[in-house]
Amino acid sequence: MLDSCKLRSACNLPLIYNKKINTSGTSNADVPLADPGMYQLDITLRRGQSLAARDRGGTSDPYVKFKIGGKEVFRSKIIYKNLNPVWEEKASILVDHLREPLYVKVFDYDFGLQDDFMGSAFLDLTQLELNRPTDVTLTLKDPHYPDHDLGAILLSVILTPKEGEHRDVTMLMRKSWKRSSKFQTQSLRLSDAHRKSHLWRGIVSITLIEGRDLKAMDSNGLSDPYVKFRLGHQKYKSKIMPKTLNPQWREQFDFHLYEERGGIIDITAWDKDAGKRDDFIGRCQVDLSALSREQTHKLELQLEEGEGHLVLLVTLTASATVSISDLSVNSLEEQKEREEILKRYSPLRIFHNLKDVGFLQVKVIRAEGLMAADVTGKSDPFCVVELNNDRLLTHTVYKNLNPEWNKVFTFNIKDIHSVLEVTVYDEDRDRSADFLGKVAIPLLSIQNGEQKAYVLKNKQLTGPTKGVIYLEIDVIFNAVKASLRTLIPKEQKYIEEENRLSKQLLLRNFIRTKRCVMVLVNAAYYVNSCFDWDSPPRSLAAFVVVEDMLEDEEEEDDKDDKDSEKKGFINKIYAIQEVCISVQNILDEVASFGERIKNTFNWTVPFLSWLAIVALCVFTVILYFIPLRYIVLVWGINKFTKKLRCPYAIDNNELLDFLSRVPSDVQVVQYQELKPDPSHSPCKRKKNNLG
């Protein structure tokens, strides 16, 4: 039965909606509105109808924000080039009271620019019936142009009373993060009934193989394609393949699977353009609910709204326990669970699930002396615990500079050379969360079962900031599995900030590179002093090689000069900036490579140095029994037939993969533990409490 609901106007924004209700339902008019935290609002964002066009092509790239009490609680995915988008996204929000309406705002996404406003509306929560699904149509309006028709948003909502439940202060909501970091995440409420909250139920392993016959977007008849993936709030962006319509990516990454039935992976292909908005090539989707578990699926996906195909490998696997719990529920303190975990990573189970290297338990106990981020002289701190791309959050402790969280986080370790990052933020109602401090702890440096006070550092991890955080960490792993995983490509973090041009960083990388080059120069002088004679053939060969390189560079310069005449002034500036960033990154890679070699031999990470010694000893023994020519023959056959045996294998170099685990000098400084003030010692604090 359709009943019309009364209109509500706030800030001159009218609300017009219809809802399907059952007249026998209980109205919430009789429920006291003053009770804090009494309701859970479950919303399904269905679709949009006849939305406003904001782009030149007569379309828009719409997304939706939900706000309650001035705080953003949900942000939808972006639907590209569509005025009638279909989202079908769900959000659950804990509502303190019903006086605050749900504020719905729609925007058009503009890459690198300010997003365009497409309209807004209010949903009056006091008009919803309790425990009854309600279909709502919200008519969008612009307060500056109230006569304009901006279309409508269709929702399904259900309001459920939560009286009688004792809840954590963490709400089921999406926090608003700084856009530059491309970081959106979700904090989950912990209830007494479910003290262990398993946050994801499986892993979606995706390998982006290649693209075929993609659409040419540049004037030269080619494109510079890259691909974006999105599953819920998780995102991944592939590397850019320059000047090709048939790119070969061979990239592998994982997403977390939160729902039993799967989900939809949104995939968009783009052409990279310097100095202007990237061109849209096409889009496609993968319905995970249609794929069988524990099996690798090869998918050839036709790009919609464009041309060409993408080739993927997708595998759905079950996940071992990843959880948040209260401090009173501790896996390693329960004897049965501890024995089970130790058995799982015992030396006898070397070849059982090589990707499951170990188990990590992190107790986030408390912090002291945090920075005051609010005008009241207080902060609203919460903690983010990260291990590679696994990310979990604590609840927020409001108006406190010495918060106590007392939470236990458990992770699966896929690489023992990973670094645990613990970051403290201040929650703000209407803005991005403010950074308060951070620590980075390599797993191999952890001392099991020891409660330690870690001095918080700045964002770059180069110096201290205000406050300390108390953690107790336990690591259990299989050393053989960890050694084998060292020789395969390292997992990349896919939400890291993009590199920006920095004069200070460029100079630092230049000095680091110069230091490494000087080591090589000094070594060359040493060799030259041992073999001090002239070699005319060698000098002639070097002269010919250098002459060829100079000729090639002159030809490339001529081509660049012709192309640059066609570019505008702005494009030239962006091109120069990109070149500088590339130089900055190349200097960093060269310097890091030299520093990693040095740090391998000076025992910066004993595990890796011992692994290198063992590998050399094994190779020496093999050489003693097997002639070198047979070893080279087997190695060559393996390399040349690898593509035939496994066509979609990702190329890797075991030596480079090993070196990627060795920290550079910059990382050594970042991971260095600062000494806390003696007054922050846990033991001394206990004595003071007793006194």
Automatic annotation (TrEMBL):
It is found in: Cytoplasmic vesicle, Secretory vesicle, Synaptic vesicle membrane; Endoplasmic reticulum membrane; Recycling endosome. Belongs to the MCTP family. It comes from Phyllostomus discolor. This is Multiple C2 and transmembrane domain-containing protein 1. Keywords: Calcium, Cytoplasmic vesicle, Endoplasmic reticulum, Endosome, Membrane, Metal-binding, Repeat, Synapse, Transmembrane, Transmembrane helix. One of its GO terms (biological process) is regulation of neurotransmitter secretion. The chain crosses the membrane at residues 607-635. Residues 20-138, 184-301, 335-456 form the C2 domain. GO terms for cellular component: endoplasmic reticulum membrane; recycling endosome; synaptic vesicle membrane. GO terms for molecular function: calcium ion binding. It is a multi-pass membrane protein. Gene3D superfamilies: C2 domain.
